[in-house]
Task: structure prediction
Amino acid sequence: MVKIKPFAALRPPKEFVQEVAARPYDVLNSIEAKAEAGEKSLLHITKPEIDFDPIIDEHSKEAYDKAIENFRLWQERGWLIRDPKEMYYVYAQTMEGRTQYGLVVCAHVEDYMSGNIKKHELTRKDKEEDRMIHVRIQSANIEPVFFTYPDVPEINKIVEKIAAGPAEYDFTAVDGFGHHFWPVSNTEDIRRITELFATIPAFYVADGHHRTAAAALVGAERKAANPNHTGEEEYNYFMTVAFPASHLKIIDYNRVVKDLNGMTPETFLQALSRDFLVERRDNDKPYVPARLHNFSMYLEGCWYSLTAREGTYDDNDPIGILDVTVLSNLVFDKLLNIKDLRTTNRIDFVGGIRGLDELKKRVDSGEMVAAFALYPVTMKQLITIADTGNIMPPKTTWFEPKLRSGLAIHTF
Result:
């Protein structure tokens, strides 16, 4: 079972929230962040290298020192203010007419260490350490991680009741996504939410595997360094936004490749036909995969439907059933000799939020030679993989909208 607690957040006054709130650190490069960051933007704390001209190495001591300085200044200037009591918070996001409602809570470090917080992706030590430095130097979880959990009807009802009232924050960001935020200050609601989460067997990391690992590992470090550790210290917890599984929708995560491993387009199509039913589409409209094991390909100005032939995949295996596995095995490994998606520079990944036109653009520009779109993974598949202790291939899931950073910060 998972353990959560409320916390007294640092967060922006209502009049500053749109200026402070920012996209997550890992969806922007430094140049994009510098162009996007206004005076009060949290990006000056999460990507402090942008405060230098020219932009400096984000992993340098100067950048980390600037992050500490900016975090202090944002509090001194009143752009971040401490709530007077420990609370939970309802955070809702609206995209394309659909709203998902989550709870901002503090999860327990031991749940990560014991496996009650379940992962579906591998993490890289270098990226873990970078995020750990930010958590260490600030003694804070500046950005939330993104969890999901099996629906609990009573939790949903409590959230619905709170969200029926006026929101503390209610704004539409420049990307068109709506963000809505309610503090949960009622003592009985706080108590009951804590009790109900204690009946949930596990959290599942939806997005933010490196931030989750970093937050939990720093908490473990603080525990090891404290000879008077009691288990009640604030460093035993880290901030997450937890959404019921029924509210979330995974969108496609697509691929573009730079070369055909020495093959011409004609010989590549012939090779594909051994494992796929290859159908050329005779119009300019992008072809959208219709079902599991059906793919879209863009090559030499044409869209194709690729349907994996029977016997080329294993639907009884939680990893074998995934279309990222099918595509990797039958195309990238077998035909293109791309063995490790984590290290190769011959492939790039494009989030489905950018649409299939982005795939066409990357190929038509000459930067890439072919593009592949996949049918999205389901929440059921993600949970099954995490429950069975399996790991998804790289770049399998894309969640949208991304959590806005800066609506709440947890310190310890």
